[in-house]
Design brief:
- By secondary structure, the protein is an alpha+beta fold.
- The protein has 13 helices and 20 strands.
- Helix 4 runs antiparallel to helix 5.
- The relative contact order is 0.07.
């Protein structure tokens, strides 16, 4: 009976999504005005392929609009004969996964467009035409669209159906289920690209983005039917799959900001790139962004590899030319040379193949040997990290240990070792961590920001009079203030050297999840606070933050059942909270 209900539910939802997509397609398909002329190639003002069907007005100007009235114009010589007026596009921009024909990715035209003597001079790029049908038959629009499977996201249903009641109430297991659903949405809202260069515009993005939104609604309904309450929003992504790994250049045009995608993924066999909405709306809206990735395999162990490239200086923001010299630590070590065409104010996420060794203790290193984080994603089987600068990046195992933590709990030891391997926390020396030492407001802020990675900017000013620019924590405190993660003792005083209380650390961690991962404040706050025997001692200003932290399992339980909000935390205890936070940021 359960299987029958599942199949019926999936069929109904799948039919609904397909129906909505057909309606969407009928409303958004390019509309032509004037006489329909075949075999004319249309580009937009950015030089991107649009269609090989266009209309002509009385003055021989060729034009075409999309459903929102966005005009795309070129001028070309109309043919001498007019074919039947039945509209049968030979190539339609894909609305779902893996289209059979993808517009060429090169932007350099090999020939000049043919123009009439009367036509105005309007620059346009003529693409090599895609394969066309030769049977002359009129085909229905539905036959031109790659529709999703009849039962979309069936894997998500199977995943949550197999969860036990205990797993459905486990914050970790629910987070893994959401991560699985997000990965499946990205797989479905996808198309293949060819060549080693690809130009992404609004036209190639809109339909996939609409499909991703529909799939998100479907995934939410699956969780609802399975009686699982997601602690955070399900994120969407559209994916462009390339078979190229050795070298791939992606040009993202400013027009994509109008489509407002949540995430754009460029996927290759060896790595993937995720461009989040914040980068699209800030960095790409103003200027096109070109991301070039080259896979480099080093020579024999110990032989230096020298690479030269342009990269933005973190301190000045300018572009400079430098030699990045590093020594390969093992034979056939893989590096990735990433070149960005402009400085970024927010980070993009790279996901690399793991290196040999324990994936839990691997980090991504810059060319100067500095670890910049790195986290194994069990769904993609990749090591995720966030970057903003051009450099050469390498994934390596980086186990760390400290002699003075061996008598601490297994949880504390695991937290300290893992975070140290990522470069998120540091010991007081090479061999000591001082787990019982006290932690200051500046130290915990720096740890939180390093845990986020994507939000750290060493030049951000928090406008606190007691945080000087020459201090090591200047940028971390400024970044945390800008993104609402931590506040000062007043509008102008931060008190960086003051010992921080447990209530403040927990609140900061909860705000971080809300900011970075869109975690939701629980509807029933008392449900998550009544477990603490001293819940009446919790300050009112942080009630929602404490409830969220309890729901997300950020609070390490005490044997006496207390929250103990006014107590100060040791370095080891703070590491345990940060570890739990780190494991929830994807």
């Amino acid at each position: 009976m359960k299987k029958i209900f599942k199949d019926a539910f999936l069929f109904a939802m799948g039919f609904a999504i397909i129906s909505i997509m057909l309606v969407f397609y009928s409303n958004s398909v390019l509309s032509m005005e004037g006489d329909i002329i075949g075999s004319s190639y249309v580009t937009d003002f950015e030089g991107s392929y649009v269609s090989d069907i266009c209309g002509y007005s009385d003055d021989d100007s060729c034009f075409i609009t999309d459903g929102d009235g966005y005009y795309i114009i070129i001028f070309t010589e109309p043919p001498t004969t007019i074919p039947p007026t039945t509209i049968a596009p030979t190539t339609i921009a894909p609305t779902t996964v893996a289209p059979t024909t993808v517009p060429p990715t090169t932007i350099a035209p090999t020939t000049e467009p043919t123009t009439t003597t009367e036509a105005p001079t309007v620059p346009s790029v003529i693409w090599s035409p895609p394969e066309t049908k030769t049977n002359g038959e009129t085909e229905e629009i539905a036959e031109e669209i790659d529709l999703p499977p009849a039962l979309p996201l069936e894997n998500v249903w199977d995943y949550v159906a197999e969860m036990t009641p205990d797993q459905k109430s486990s914050p970790h297991e629910v987070d893994m289920a959401i991560l699985f659903a997000e990965n499946e949405i990205a797989k479905c809202a996808a198309m293949e690209i060819t060549g080693d260069e690809f130009i992404l515009t609004k036209f190639l993005l809109e339909d996939l983005q609409e499909q991703a939104k529909l799939l998100k609604e479907f995934a939410e309904s699956i969780f609802l039917e399975a009686d699982i309450e997601p602690m955070r929003e399900i994120r969407t992504a559209v994916t462009y799959k390339s078979a190229k790994s050795d070298r791939l250049s992606i040009k993202l045009k400013p027009s994509i900001a109008a489509a407002a995608p949540e995430n754009i993924i460029i996927q290759t066999p060896d790595y993937s790139i995720c461009i989040p909405n914040c980068v699209i709306l800030t960095d790409i809206r103003a200027n096109e962004l070109i991301i070039t990735t080259e896979k480099i395999t080093s020579g024999k162990s110990g032989s230096p590899a020298i690479h030269t490239f342009a990269y933005p200086s973190p301190s000045s923001g300018s572009t400079m030319l430098a030699n990045a010299k590093f020594v390969a630590s093992s034979q056939n070590e893989v590096q990735y040379k990433v070149t960005l065409s402009q400085d970024l104010t927010e980070n993009i996420k790279y996901s690399f193949d793991p290196a040999p060794g324990d994936v839990n203790y691997q980090a991504v290193f810059c060319s100067d040997g500095t670890p910049i984080g790195g986290k194994y994603n069990p769904q993609t089987k990749k090591i995720d990290t966030r970057i903003r600068y051009s450099d050469i990046y390498t994934v390596k195992e980086n186990k760390k240990d400290f002699g003075d933590i061996l008598k601490k709990s297994d949880q504390m030891q695991e937290a300290i070792r893992m975070l140290a391997s990522k470069g998120i926390i540091n010991g007081t020396s090479q061999h000591t961590f001082e787990p019982d030492g006290e932690i200051t407001r500046a130290e915990i802020t720096a740890m939180i920001v390093r845990t986020l990675v994507s939000r750290f900017d060493e030049n951000t000013d928090g406008k606190f009079t007691d945080v000087k620019r020459n201090k090591w924590y200047f940028g971390a405190i400024g970044t945390a203030k800008v993104y609402g993660i931590i506040n000062g003792m007043s509008a102008t005083i931060f008190a960086p050297d003051l010992q921080i209380k447990k209530e403040q650390i927990i609140a900061i961690a909860a705000r971080t999840l809300r900011s970075e991962m869109k975690y939701k404040t629980p509807a029933d706050i008392d449900k998550y606070l009544k477990k603490f025997t001293d819940k009446n001692a919790l300050p009112d200003w942080g009630i929602e933050d404490f409830a969220l932290a309890s729901m997300a399992d950020l609070i390490v339980p005490r044997t006496d059942g207390k929250f103990n909000p006014g107590a100060t935390m040791t370095r080891g205890e703070a590491a345990m909270v940060l570890y739990r936070l780190f494991m929830k940021i994807w």
